[in-house]
């Protein structure tokens, strides 16, 4: 049986929201200096949790904080960010689960509603070669803040994954999906198997209704 394992990123593989971590990193480094930006960022993340985030507006807003930074400069910051801020927050159970699929030859995809320039380096750090995030337009080696391609948020995750599999002509008989968020319910319904990780209340209720396996991962698992 052909199998595919698909993972959300934030609060699923790592014990944090990488977008908020990124904002905190930029603040600590003095790259952003306006406290109002931090407050607005947290409000937008609250909108995400409530399922009402305007992704285009959020990405345009967040890119403003980077001013005239080039793509190369941002990549340099992200490399340091990935090692210093994200790596310590990877769930040990996530590492074990990814290793299990790799050992058994099951392809793995990470798909996230975080910016692509963050998602791909984090995925690489986790040993995952296929990853999709929010793609952003680049002009003259600078991000414009405009979205491009399929937006990997809510129903867009399904569209992005289905489009990718169609291009690859790979139609797995079994698609296993791991997530923490009710925003991913469209992809949960697309998958054949769903495993929730520290599910939010709405996803937890749906998991109980559907009989999906519910996992609780922590940074210090009892049996580690």
Structure description:
This protein is α/β, with parallel strands linked by helices and 224 residues long. It has a single domain, classed as Rossmann fold, CATH 3.40.50.1000. Helices cover 46% and strands 19% of the residues. The protein is built from nine helices and eight strands. The strands form two sheets. The chain has a six-stranded parallel β-sheet, sandwiched between helices. The chain has a two-stranded antiparallel sheet with strand order 4-5. Strand 7, helix 9 (201-210) and strand 8 (213-215) form a beta-alpha-beta unit. It starts with a strand and ends in a 9-residue tail after the last strand. This is Phosphoserine phosphatase. InterPro entries: HAD-like_SerB, HAD-like_sf, HAD_hydro_SerB1, HAD_sf. One of its GO terms (molecular function) is hydrolase activity.
Rounded mean pLDDT is: 93
CATH topology: Rossmann fold
Task: List how many beta strands DSSP finds.
Answer: 8
Give a short account of the largest sheet.
Answer: 6 strands, parallel
What is the gyration radius calculated from CA atoms? 17 Å
CATH-derived architecture: 3-Layer(aba) Sandwich
Give the fraction of residues assigned to helices: 40-55%
CATH superfamily: HAD superfamily/HAD-like
CATH top level class name = Alpha Beta
Pfam families: HAD (PF12710)
GO molecular function: hydrolase activity; metal ion binding
Keywords: Hydrolase, Magnesium, Metal-binding
Protein name: Phosphoserine phosphatase
């Amino acid at each position: 049986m052909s199998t595919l394992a698909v993972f959300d990123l934030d609060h699923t593989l790592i014990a944090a929201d990488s977008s908020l971590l990124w904002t905190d990193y930029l603040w600590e480094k003095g790259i952003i200096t306006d406290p109002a930006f931090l407050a607005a960022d947290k409000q937008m993340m609250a909108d995400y949790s409530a399922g009402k985030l305007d992704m285009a507006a959020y990405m345009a807003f967040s890119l403003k904080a980077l001013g005239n930074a080039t793509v190369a400069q941002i990549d340099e910051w992200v490399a340091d960010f990935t090692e210093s801020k994200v790596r310590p927050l990877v769930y040990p159970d996530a590492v074990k689960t990814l290793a299990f699929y790799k050992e058994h030859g099951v392809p793995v995809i990470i798909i996230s509603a975080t910016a692509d320039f963050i998602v791909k380096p984090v995925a690489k750090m986790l040993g995952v070669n296929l990853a999709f995030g929010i793609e952003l337009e680049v002009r003259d080696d600078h991000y414009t803040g405009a979205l491009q391609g399929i937006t990997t948020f809510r129903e867009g995750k399904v569209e992005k994954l289905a489009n990718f599999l169609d291009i690859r002509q790979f139609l797995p008989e079994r698609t296993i999906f791991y997530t923490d968020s009710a925003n991913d319910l469209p992809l949960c319904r697309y998958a054949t198997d769903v495993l929730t990780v520290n599910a939010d209340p709405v996803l937890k209720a749906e998991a109980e209704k559907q009989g999906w396996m519910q996992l609780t991962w922590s940074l210090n698992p009892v049996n580690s």
